[in-house]
Design goal:
12% helix, two-stranded antiparallel sheet, plasmid, 4 strands, two-stranded antiparallel ribbon, 10% strand
Amino acid sequence: MADVYCKYCGHKANTVAALTSGACMHHPLGVAKGKHSLYEGATKSSYTCKNCGHKANSISALTSGACMRHPNGVAKGKHEPVM
């Protein structure tokens, strides 16, 4: 099986079970409640934010930055990849 990635932070794991068992620091519910969530899109050479169009070479690079157009506001919202 190919590696799987978290849609909120870009964390990589070997299986979906391994991915979703860990806490995610960029999850909208916060690290205390939020687990890694599966990115269901294809692996790409660049990723685009679904809210503002910002591009990055990896999911982790994309999701590390605050998004000016995120529905939760720039203080809480990170870039989110288009699937």
